[in-house]
Amino acid sequence: MNSETDRFHYSWWINPLFAHHAGIIGLEACEGGTTYDQNGAYAVVLKGTGEIEATSEEQFTYRVPQDDKGKFRLTAATLKSRDPIRVLRSHSINSIWGPKAGIRYEGL
Questions:
Q1: I want to staple 61 with a disulfide (CB 3.0 to 4.6 A). Which of 53, 73, 91, 99 is the partner?
Q2: Cα separation, 14 vs 27, whole angstroms
Q3: What is the chain's Cα-based Rg?
Q4: Nearest to 89 by CA among 81, 72, 56, 67
Q5: How confident is the model over 36-94, as pLDDT tens digits?
Q6: How far is 10 from 26, CA to CA, in rounded Å?
Q7: Cβ atoms within 10 A of the Cβ of 37, count?
Q8: How far is residue 62's CA from residue 50's CA, in Å, rounded to a whole number?
Q9: CA–CA separation, 87 vs 103, rounded Å?
Q10: Average pLDDT, stretch 33-38?
Q11: SS (H, E, C) the chain
Q12: Are 87 and 106 in contact (CB under 8 A)?
């Protein structure tokens, strides 16, 4: 799946609960962190100080919250488990790349 075929491409919501209702993130990620299932992580919500370095909108270093239950699902043990991960940025992120309000889907 690429950004052009992703149905959420360029989407924005007033808060993470609306993004959850749309099906892009799980309820566990509404406060920031990882959405995952038995196959691995499939979405990350960047909030607060989660983005520690970003040279552009597409390239960033992410700090997983200590209490994030999906943090180990971000690492791929095998090539088969290396699926794209949706990235969403919250207005509360400490970054110039975050939206002015709400939560925005950045792409895969």
A1: 53
A2: 15
A3: 13
A4: 56
A5: 888 788 899 998 878 888 888 888 888 888 888 887 777 766 666 677 889 999 999 88
A6: 19
A7: 10
A8: 6
A9: 10
A10: 87
A11: CCCCCCCCCCCEECCHHHHHHHCCCCHHHCCCEEEEECCEEEEEEECCCCEEEECCCCCEEECCCCCCCCHHHHCCCCHHHCCCCEEEEECCCCCCCCCCCCEEEEEC
A12: yes
Question: Are 45 and 90 within 8 A, CB to CB?
Answer: yes
Characterize the bridge pairing of strands 40-46 and 12-13: unpaired
Structure tokens, 2: 């690429």
CATH of domain 12-107: 2.30.280.10
Q: Which residues contact residue 43 at a Cβ distance below 8 angstroms, ignoring those fewer than 6 apart?
A: 24, 25, 26, 29, 34, 35, 85, 86, 87, 88
* Tokens at 81, concatenated: 């488990």
